[in-house]
Amino acid sequence: MCARAPAPPSSSISGGSLPPDLSPPIVAYYRDTPAPTSSSSISIWWLPAVGSAAAHPCHTNLASPGYHCDALAPPSSSISGGSPSPDLPPPTTMISPDFEPTIWSNFFINYQPQPLQMPEKWLNDRVNALKNRVSQFFEASKDMVEKMNLVDTVEHLGIGHHFEDQIADTLRDIQHEEFNSSSLHEVSLRFRLLREHGLWVSPDDFNRFKDTNGRFNLDIINEPKGLLSLYNAAHLLTHDELILDEAIGFARLHLESMRHHLEYPLAEQVNCALHLPLPRTVRRIEALHYMSEYEHEPACNPTILELAKIDFNILQSLHLKELKAVSEWWQDLYAEVALSYARDRTVQLYLWAHTMCYEKEYSCARITLTKLSALVTMMDDTYDVRATLEESQNFNEAIQRWDESDVSLLPEYLKKFYLRIIFSFKEIEDALEPNEKYKASYAKKSFQTLSKFYLQGAEWFHHNYMPTFKEKIEVSLMDSGSPFSVVALLVGMGDTVNKEALDWAIGCTDAVKACGELTRYMNDISALQHGNRKQDAPNCVQCYIAEYNVTSEVAIANISQMMEDASKTTNKALLELRTLHAVVRRVVNMTICLTLIYGKKKDVFTFGDDLDEVIKQVFANPISIRFML
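User: That's the sequence. What structure does it adopt?
Assistant: Structure tokens below.
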């Protein structure tokens, strides 16, 4: 598997033991999965090669009822285009939930973290001193390759947020300077850095590594570092960039053949990239991985590494305070509304928000997204596992009216929840600055829209209806919850987000739509591994099978290609929406986070304890540091 091999002993890490229940786990489990062995040029998230039956996780009969149906599109009073599903069970009400409990309910309320190795003021002063030194590195870098390596190192270690201006200036220089390097690694690194920052660079740059027949030169197969850089860079492709598709296949084929013969840390980097390319890793968790690798690289800069470790620990202390606050908020809400059938996943939701924006200045965004996502989860579970069709219709009507007096429409068990929804949105609006309060209306509108889509799914279920694949995707890309999450995240991001950004987000076009599609596709494919519950409506894979009369392998292969197309759409949005780049970057982070939720071919948010180890590592285990004084 793509498990990290034990790192050689480190002289720069010392001291510190964890409580027995928080022993060091494997960092970032999503990379601890077998690297696929196919040489296909298509590397679709966690899915192996498209088109190979053996590569797909599910070979079961998919004609049975579908998986968890959650979505965003106006409810349809008239159902057309699909057909009744003969395999669906009769509509069921008051279904006993089968959601597993979480170990995190009160954990961060009562958790007493280890004290930082040095006083907080000393650490902050140390960070400022180290930041000044790193800024001097930027000023002193004159060679383009040196500049690129510095930007890559700083960002890979998770401290790019401290040097945004220096990085932007450096990349503008890199983009406009002539670059005739014959090094595959250097050309690939330049391509990846520019595209990650939304700066155009032509894939034709890689033609210099092709022969007269248009094939990649075989002499580059002896450059493992260059092939790895090519493989990672090529995953930033957009539509119709065939040379990058070819690059992925070529690099993958030769990396797989050599990966067992490389030395640490390159061997680890290759093995993990074959499972999940670098542009598709969760940045904060990847930074933890890279810290242990970087100190063993010949070019390791101890100043940069120390800054990365201190910064991680300082931010972790802030994140712990936020976790305690949202956990207390959730416990109060959960006790008040008394909807025991709903999933208790607030810590997991905070992790989700954290992967999109972990920086200090986005505390409000993390808390806002976590709280609103918790309300959405409870609303989703109400539609899915508890409410009758009539109750669902009345619940949606009350949400559209958004008035406390409409609580009379609801059954007794939903009244407190409905009132708490209205109160929570008002609470979030009150927490915004006066000139930003208008943003809360976008979250409210998106929440109301999401409710409509949840109702559509409930109507399909209760009418025993099998939608067409197109109908299913139009609804389920929205009820995946991701388009709502984008809007909810932006509400709390302060000056970074303006009305233009919110209008773009709520319009659910390009990258936002692609994010919803990816969420739905990955959810439904992973659902087949876990099995179906009797209250679940048909998922998109089953709708595809029913409409096109194909096998599960063909359905998954074709949907997997749709996933790759959606990924290309997000890459394209980074390049084209320059005025919204900072916002699009967060949407890309959201799509990347899906590897964390579905990376083990199941929905680890809903089922199992697979996220427990990464939660401990990111929030409960500080990094032990030997300070370079």
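Residues 363 and 376 are 20 Å apart (CA to CA).
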